[in-house]
């Protein structure tokens, strides 16, 4: 009886967890691809440069692996080819456990991206999660007699469910790539007040770790005794710190960040000109021209890019883009919007609209949000 209950618990938890993890990543396949690129680059330095071969295909791996998680989770819950599914899940979990342990122990990748931007886990938390999952899978393998596969008719029905899960998960990933994520968990989502998020929500408090006579001591106030040697300071309320710490915009004349939060601004984000979709600038230029003619709500367009001024000058002449441009960090731009190019509409620093280049809005749509 106890083994049967344990089997049912492990069956439900493992199936649900894989489905949840896969769906969260399919919600933002570009974000998952960025995380995979980070892993490939780390492994290329630590093991072999051959891993760099996989970088251009990170998006394909993202959609495939995320869909596979959903498919296997569904297959387990409907008990389709249970034995095969369990062994595949075990192999995947062993692989993920190695990745998270390697990241945690050697401090290589600070966020595994297991649950995308929805749930942030530290490297050791990610490793602990995988260890628990590994234990549950071993329990399932040891007690799989309590989880028999369905009969022949049941297997056909289960197979149809798995096929539908395959089509839906892959379709979900492809659609999310061609548009913005269904659910935006990032700090730059619609409704976010960027200048407010750049400030702490409460005064930060710190614990000072000091050393004296070979002994480590902790203080909530910096000690005045000069015999103490400072080691490090640790925030006591990091959750009250700024949610955005790296948003900076500049050009050759200096910093432009604060000016960006004044009035109505339409940010045209171009991550890198080499990878941007040049064809989309026909629709973008039409929008910019329409906004310039429509003065009911003045909107100032600004381009943000991580490309060099030389590269961008050549590019903007190729696509006839007559808009002032500024520079920002490449990682920040990819966090702001996954699309390259992408559009972000702000009103006094508050995000009121975001669009993928496949969904360029009309002048009326932009004006209605201001």
TrEMBL record:
It comes from the Bacteria. Coiled coil: none annotated. InterPro entries: Methylamine_util_MauE. Residues 10-142 form the Methylamine utilisation protein MauE domain. It is found in: Membrane. The keyword Phosphoprotein does not apply. It is a multi-pass membrane protein. Pfam families: MauE. Keywords: Membrane, Transmembrane, Transmembrane helix. The chain crosses the membrane at residues 9-27, 47-77, 84-105, 131-147, 159-177. This is DoxX family protein.
């Amino acid at each position: 009886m106890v083994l049967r209950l344990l089997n049912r618990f492990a069956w439900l938890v493992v199936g649900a967890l894989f489905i949840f993890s896969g769906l969260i990543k399919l919600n933002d396949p570009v974000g998952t691809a960025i995380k995979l690129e980070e892993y490939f680059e780390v492994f290329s330095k630590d093991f072999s440069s051959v891993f760099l071969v996989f970088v251009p295909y990170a998006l394909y791996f993202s959609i495939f692996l995320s869909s596979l998680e959903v498919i296997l989770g569904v297959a387990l819950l409907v008990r389709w080819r249970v034995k095969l599914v369990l062994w595949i899940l075990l192999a995947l979990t062993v692989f993920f456990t190695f990745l998270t342990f390697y990241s945690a122990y050697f401090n290589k990748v600070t966020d595994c991206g297991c649950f995308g931007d929805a749930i942030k886990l530290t490297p050791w938390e990610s490793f602990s999660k995988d260890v628990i999952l590994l234990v549950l899978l071993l329990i399932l393998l040891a007690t799989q007699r309590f989880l028999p596969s369905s009969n022949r008719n049941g297997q056909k029905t289960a197979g149809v469910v798995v096929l539908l899960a395959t089509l839906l998960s892959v379709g979900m990933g492809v659609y999310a790539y061609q548009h913005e994520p269904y659910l935006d968990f990032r700090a730059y989502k619609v409704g976010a007040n960027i200048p407010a998020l750049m400030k702490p929500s409460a005064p930060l408090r710190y614990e000072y770790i000091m050393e004296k006579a070979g002994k480590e001591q902790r203080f909530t106030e910096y000690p005045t005794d000069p015999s103490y040697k400072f080691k490090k300071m640790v925030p006591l309320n990091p959750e009250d710190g700024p949610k955005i710490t790296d948003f900076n915009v500049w050009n050759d004349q200096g910093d432009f960040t604060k000016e960006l939060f004044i009035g109505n601004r339409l940010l045209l984000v171009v991550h890198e000109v080499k990878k941007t979709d040049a064809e989309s600038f026909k629709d973008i230029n039409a929008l910019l021209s329409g906004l310039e003619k429509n003065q009911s709500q003045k909107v100032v367009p600004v381009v943000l890019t991580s490309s060099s001024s030389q590269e961008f000058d050549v590019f903007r002449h190729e696509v006839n883009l007559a808009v002032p441009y500024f520079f920002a960090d490449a990682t920040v731009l990819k966090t702001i919007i996954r699309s390259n190019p992408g559009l972000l509409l702000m009103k006094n620093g508050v995000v009121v609209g975001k669009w993928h280049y496949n969904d360029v809005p009309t002048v009326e749509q932009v004006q209605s949000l201001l």
